[in-house]
Amino acid sequence: MASDKVTACCQTLIEKNLTISFAESASAGKMCYEFSTVLNSGKILIGGIVCYHSSMKEDLLHIPWGTIEQYSAESAEVTKLMAQNFYRYVGSDICVGLTGLTTPGGSESEAKPVGTIFIHIIFGEKQIAKRYEFKGSPESIINQAIDVVADLILMEI
Questions:
Q1: Rounded Cα–Cα distance for residues 146 and 35 (Å)
Q2: Is 60 helix (H, G, I), strand (E, B) or coil?
Q3: How many CA atoms lie within 13 A of 91 on its CB side?
Q4: Quick check: 63 and 82 in contact, CB under 8 A?
């Protein structure tokens, strides 16, 4: 069941006849799934791609070789490229890219602890890039990130 924020976001997208797509890493498809559970989501949801491993980001989303090594798979730079490159292939009005750290074992550091999430949203010519640090379990971190995405979209449309 989608959160109230996701439901409100979807209802507004439906009212405004806007479509959405997702390029996900840390959320592993949950964001696309949550948006799919709202009544009439078929009117707005184009689809999504899950590129969890670096090889998928490079091979399917054409993240230039060396970019992930330079910035890490969980970075603003990679998230931006994921959103931009997926947006080019998908005919949606809005495209959301999301990467981050929900568990130890990635590129976490003092400056980028577990709970750090990067979001990049494209609205045609306008783009929004955000970095957040959430607390809680991996599932809680993802749920908080999904609600933030819904809020960011609602503020823009």
A1: 9
A2: helix
A3: 0
A4: yes
* C-alpha–C-alpha distance, residues 91 and 145, integer Å: 24
The partner residues of 95 in beta bridges, in order of sequence, read 21, 122
Tokens 């209802």: give the residue.
11
Give the neighbor-by-neighbor strand order of the sheet with 45-50: 45-50, 20-24, 94-100, 116-123, 126-133
Structure tokens, 97 = 């890219």
Residue 28 burial (C-beta neighbours within 10 Å; 0-12, 13-18, 19+): middle
Dump pLDDT digits (tens) for 82-105. Answer: 999 999 999 899 999 999 999 998
Q: Which domains are assigned to the chain?
A: 4-156 (3.90.950.20)
